[in-house]
Design a protein that fits this description.
about 65% helix, disordered C terminus, mainly alpha, single chain
């Protein structure tokens, strides 16, 4: 097939613009104030203003999977089944209400910092797994959307388009960190807004299209069958609360100048998510109201399920004039990178800080951490590329990305922020039981069979009708709390000897940690444990040793008697 030269030129121009902005923004990445070098790259020196913060927060969610998936599901299932825009908008609202202020006030650098501080480095490393998978699934969805969009413009296989687009996003992410990502997000958000909205009136007035108000209940507004209401609610809760514990979200929260601004940008970005989904929803409704036999679409009619992931670029390609088509598709191609670069940077930041430095190499320098993060960017990109090339539906990929995050990380985040007596035993127990329930429930979309058939199981389609994902999340939370309190009772009552506190989080506390507790307030001890502050900010990699804490003649350690340790840490 012949390549559409005007479309290719439009893409090149948009990509050049994005790269130019990324290079310009990278020059801002210089050490400012008391920020460390890693904070400068990962959090833009905590110097992101309110306006830029709103743009980058909105653009992070409004990527290719978000836009393409919205049009796809409206075309295939109807408006009422398009839950993600509302679900993710609510996740930003709840994130701002209950988590943004606390996380920003504590001065964390990544979402995993509070987990490692309270549950230990290795438990934090275990929690990195669902966080990583979530970011990889999300990035894979974005790259798949890029590939489908560019394949429509250039009439080529998606694979080369996915690889080329990923390389562009990686380039400016590598050179500028969060500064480049944030400022390119502004350009990308404008591109997607104007590129899609300018296409809507042309698509609506195409001769093959009837008014979306005519036969709407048949074309794109379908009722929700009673039999699927439990799973429908399950999916909505997953999107709402599973959209909170993401490093890509907290990276923007923690980069805000103040805790109040972190909350405000969450609320406004929630509104922005709804606004940005509107043109995609309208184009999905237009596609469902179109007689595709009267267009130049060369494929089958009605459009088969395998082509539905391409419905948005198809609508722009076949229902709009060429100039509008290239503007809309070119803008969309540039804009959907706004989520890929963010997720890649987020996953790499967690690996470098919370895995490499906190678990394996405590003495790593700032420069070493930066280079490890850059290497991790390539690893995360490779995983996301493999995912993008293997999963058929963009919406399924987009939907799955919040799954493990909802089941495992959300209850862990709630406990680490709001349940003071939660501990490592409870965290590990919740992790294991919640993961088991989720895996046992199966996942038809990726071919994972159900080991447990909950009530309302559909034997014909082999899918669960029961809200088992929410059940798995609740199992994680309840197991975490119950095991935490039960373990405290066992050790403090003397039923279990002190030496069996293998995680050293209840009674078998290291001496140097107890000395720190004797010198600081109880709140400081609970908050930091073995950790300290660096430039006024929590640093899990910063260890206190006995030599650091005790000076000659210091009797502090004698004041902390073993039999009083349980009282001290309550």
């Amino acid at each position: 097939m012949a390549i559409h030269i005007p479309g290719l030129i439009a893409i090149i121009l948009f990509y050049v613009l994005i790269v130019a902005v990324g290079i310009w923004a990278s020059r801002k990445s210089k050490k400012t104030g008391d920020s460390t070098e890693t904070e400068e790259v990962m959090l833009a020196g905590r110097n992101i203003g309110l306006i830029i913060g709103i743009f980058t927060m909105t653009a992070t969610w409004v990527g290719g999977a978000y836009i393409n998936g919205t049009a796809e599901v409206i075309m295939s299932s109807g408006l009422l089944f398009c839950q993600a825009p509302v679900g993710y908008a609510l996740s930003l609202v709840f994130g701002g209400l209950f988590f943004a202020n606390r996380m920003r006030t504590e001065g964390y650098v990544t979402m995993l910092d509070p987990f490692q501080i309270k549950f230990g480095e290795r438990m934090g490393g275990l929690l990195f797994i669902p966080a990583l998978l979530g970011e990889v699934f999300w990035t894979g969805a974005v790259l798949a959307a890029l590939g489908s969009t560019l394949s429509v413009i250039m009439e080529l296989e998606p694979r080369p388009a996915i690889i080329i687009s990923a390389c562009v996003a990686l380039f400016y992410t590598l050179i500028g960190g969060l500064y480049s990502v944030a400022y390119t997000d502004v350009v990308q958000l404008f591109c997607i807004f104007f590129g899609l909205w300018i296409s809507v009136p042309f698509a609506m007035t195409h001769p093959a299209t009837t008014s979306i108000a005519v036969n709407a209940t048949q074309n794109w507004i379908h009722p929700i069958p009673t039999s699927v209401i439990p799973s429908y609610i399950d999916s909505f809760l997953l999107l709402t609360f599973g959209g909170i514990p993401w490093q890509v979200y907290f990276q923007r929260v923690l980069s805000a100048k103040t805790a109040l601004k972190a909350q405000i940008l969450s609320y406004i970005a929630a509104f922005g998510c709804i606004v940005m989904a509107t043109p995609a929803a309208l184009l999905g409704a237009v596609a469902a109201s179109t007689d595709w036999n009267k267009t130049d679409w060369p494929g089958e009619v009605p459009i088969p399920a395998k082509d539905l992931p391409l419905i948005l670029p198809m609508t722009l390609q076949y229902l709009c004039p060429p100039a509008i088509t290239f503007l809309g598709l070119g803008a969309l191609s540039a804009a959907v990178m706004s989520s890929a670069d963010s997720s890649i940077l987020s996953a790499a930041s967690m690996f470098a800080r919370n895995i490499y430095r906190s678990v394996f190499r405590h003495a790593a320098s700032e420069r070493e951490i930066i280079w490890v993060m850059r290497g991790a960017i390539f690893g995360v990109s490779a995983l996301a590329l493999a995912m993008a090339l293997c999963v058929e539906s963009i919406y399924i990929l987009w939907y799955l990305c919040a799954d493990l995050v909802y089941v495992i990380l959300f209850p862990q985040l709630v406990s680490v922020i709001y349940i003071k007596k939660s501990n490592t035993y409870g965290s590990l127990g919740g992790y294991i039981f919640g993961m088991f329930i989720r895996i046992a429930g199966g996942e038809h979309s990726i071919g994972l069979p159900a080991l447990i058939k909950f009530p309302l199981f559909d034997e014909v389609n082999q899918v669960q009708g029961f809200p088992y994902k929410t059940l798995a999340m609740l199992v994680t939370l309840l197991t975490l709390v119950s095991i935490s309190y039960f373990s405290i009772y066992l050790f403090e009552s003397g039923i279990l000897p002190r030496r069996m506190d293998i995680f050293m989080c209840i009674v078998n506390i290291p001496d140097e940690q107890m000395v720190l507790a004797s010198r600081e307030s109880v709140d400081e001890h609970i908050k930091f444990g073995l950790y300290g502050k660096e430039n006024g900010k929590v640093n899990p990699a910063l260890k206190f040793s006995t030599e650091d804490l005790i000076t000659p003649g210091d009797s502090a350690i004698e004041k902390v008697l073993p039999e009083k340790r349980s009282d001290l840490i309550q």
